[in-house]
User: Which sequence fits this backbone?
């Protein structure tokens, strides 16, 4: 086979692979989107209905009101915003301290990182017992605290990496001008790090927004978040296909939009800053 | 590519110029500690303390069905270790996460290579391909249950047309199809993770070796085998390590798609411990089991991170 012909074949193979990947990614998304607007009569039609002739929004109404999706949505927003804010407020100073002062050496940094790999069930069981004793079970505050700890490795390490690659000349200049370290941190480093803080915040938000396990075990009727509402739609019970799809759309649209917004920082977000994208 | 280990160029900070008395000077001197204190305290309160508490729980009787907290020694550990379901769920966890991560790696690498050279619309395609990363695993489980489940899901119908004969596969309850379904869902969600990291690794490889290789008449496979792959090794280790450490926690997709069933055949370690603790309320057995699971995880973390750091150092 000549070189030119081989090139053309690998070129075709390449686009075939990309097309297959796109199909694999989009097919479930499309099926859920279309199911969310499909009248119930179309569920069991043979052949399956790919384009509903009479789209409807009744499933959205049912998911949000009858299945308490709206309450879950509002808890999710509160808890995710609260945990993100707290995580960034605590994580940014720690990241700065690790980067500028090497506080605790590599041990402290890796200790925080190791929290990221703890099995949730190992933490979840005792927290469940403790929360019951301290009145934090089934409260949004309790969930905010757990999610803050859960996202701290992310925010600390992303900011650690960010401050390390930030030139320190400006802080040094500020200190020569008579600023202390606190002022150099608050007035110089923080403003320079705002893009990094924003990216870390978005990743923390998405992490909390999509989290299921802790919400499942630490909440019940009062503080349940959006992912836990899907319990009502578990595959082997009932047939609320439209409702579950509608609620899935409500949940995934915000996090996908946010995620694509910070796509530039994705490599750093996925590797906790270990890799600069 | 940047190293994982913190760099060494930093001075010790605030000593020196502000040394002396007074509260302001103390604040200035202690800034390093003061900046880490809030985060460290919260982690101590909500991660370290609960873990120690659970260590106590695992040595006593703590069961919503049996009153009192009598010390029972190693009985909880013994009964978990003796439990055949615990063993089979651990085996399922190991096998399932290995298959998941291997497939995600292979597909992610293939996709990263296919997407390596620029083409019109590459940015848009990338944006679409990463979408699964931002979706709750619960919803991913829901997606695949919808697609696969009989009689509603279109999968059996489409397969029937493709194969020219009726297909009636019980994707969520028939072996081995239920495992295939779980793998499909996990691979769907996490292949983009591999793709994104490996793409970053490919981008970081300089052009010169390839140019030299082209002059020497090296073919595509050889270039991949002797230039791309060696340069990519640290990135591969990083991606596989991160992914594997998450894969062994598999819970959400099981919860939504199979509920661990039929029977207990698709129990993972996390799902087993959840059932034990939160459905059967054998809390001390569950904490004993989760300590064992934690130790196994820690062993895996130590092993993998060591290898990762060694590869970084070798670069």
Assistant:
């Amino acid at each position: 086979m000549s070189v030119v012909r081989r090139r053309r074949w690998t070129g075709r193979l390449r686009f075939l692979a990309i097309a297959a990947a796109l199909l694999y990614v989009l097919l479930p998304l499309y099926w859920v989107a279309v199911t969310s607007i499909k009248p119930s009569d179309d569920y069991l039609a043979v052949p399956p209905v790919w384009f509903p002739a009479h789209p409807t929004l009744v499933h959205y109404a049912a998911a949000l009101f009858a299945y308490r999706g709206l309450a879950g949505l509002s808890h999710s927003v509160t808890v995710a915003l609260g945990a993100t804010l707290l995580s960034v407020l605590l994580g940014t100073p720690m990241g700065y301290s690790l980067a500028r002062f090497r506080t605790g050496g590599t041990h402290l940094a890796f200790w925080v990182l190791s929290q990221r790999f703890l099995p949730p069930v190992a933490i979840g069981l005792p927290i469940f017992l403790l929360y019951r004793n301290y009145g934090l079970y089934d409260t949004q505050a309790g969930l905010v605290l757990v999610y803050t700890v859960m996202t701290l490795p992310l925010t600390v390490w992303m900011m650690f990496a960010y401050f390390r690659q930030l030139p320190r000349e400006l802080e040094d200049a500020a200190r020569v001008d008579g600023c202390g370290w606190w002022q150099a941190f608050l007035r110089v480093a923080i403003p320079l790090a705002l893009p990094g803080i924003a990216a870390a915040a978005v990743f923390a938000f998405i992490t909390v927004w999509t989290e299921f396990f802790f919400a499942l075990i630490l909440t019940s009727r009062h503080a349940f978040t959006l992912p836990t509402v899907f319990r009502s739609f578990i595959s082997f019970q009932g047939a609320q296909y439209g409702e579950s799809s509608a609620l899935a759309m409500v949940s995934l649209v915000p996090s996908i939009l946010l995620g694509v917004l910070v796509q530039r920082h994705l490599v750093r977000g996925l590797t906790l800053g270990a890799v600069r994208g | 590519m940047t190293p994982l280990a913190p760099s060494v160029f930093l001075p010790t900070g605030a000593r020196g110029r502000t040394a002396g008395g007074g509260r302001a000077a103390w604040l200035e001197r202690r800034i390093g500690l003061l900046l880490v204190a809030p985060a460290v305290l919260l982690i101590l309160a909500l991660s370290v303390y609960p873990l120690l508490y659970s260590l106590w729980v695992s040595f006593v009787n703590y069961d919503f069905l049996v009153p009192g907290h009598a010390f029972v020694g190693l009985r909880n550990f013994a009964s978990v270790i003796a439990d055949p379901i615990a063993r089979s769920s651990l085996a399922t966890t190991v096998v399932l996460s290995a298959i998941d991560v291997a497939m995600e790696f292979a597909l992610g690498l293939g996709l990263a290579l296919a997407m390596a050279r620029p083409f019109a619309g590459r940015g848009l395609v990338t944006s679409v391909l990463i979408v699964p990363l931002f979706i709750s695993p619960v919803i991913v489980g829901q997606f695949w249950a919808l697609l696969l489940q009989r009689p509603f899901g279109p999968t059996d119908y489409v397969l029937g047309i493709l194969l020219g004969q009726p297909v009636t596969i019980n994707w969520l309850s028939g072996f081995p199809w239920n495992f295939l379904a779980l793998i499909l869902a996990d691979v769907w969600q996490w292949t983009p993770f591999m793709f994104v990291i490996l793409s970053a690794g490919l981008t970081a490889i300089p052009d010169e070796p390839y140019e030299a290789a082209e002059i020497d008449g090296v073919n595509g496979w050889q270039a991949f085998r002797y230039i791309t792959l060696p340069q990519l090794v640290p990135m591969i280790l990083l991606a596989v390590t991160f992914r594997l450490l998450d894969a062994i926690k598999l819970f959400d997709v099981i919860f939504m798609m199979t509920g661990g069933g039929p029977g207990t055949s698709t129990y993972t370690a996390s799902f087993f411990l959840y059932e034990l603790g939160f459905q059967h309320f054998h809390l001390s057995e569950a904490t004993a089991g989760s300590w064992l699971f934690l130790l196994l995880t820690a062993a895996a973390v130590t092993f993998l991170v060591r290898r990762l750091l060694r590869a970084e150092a070798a670069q």
User: Anything to note?
Assistant: Chain B has one domain: 82-314.
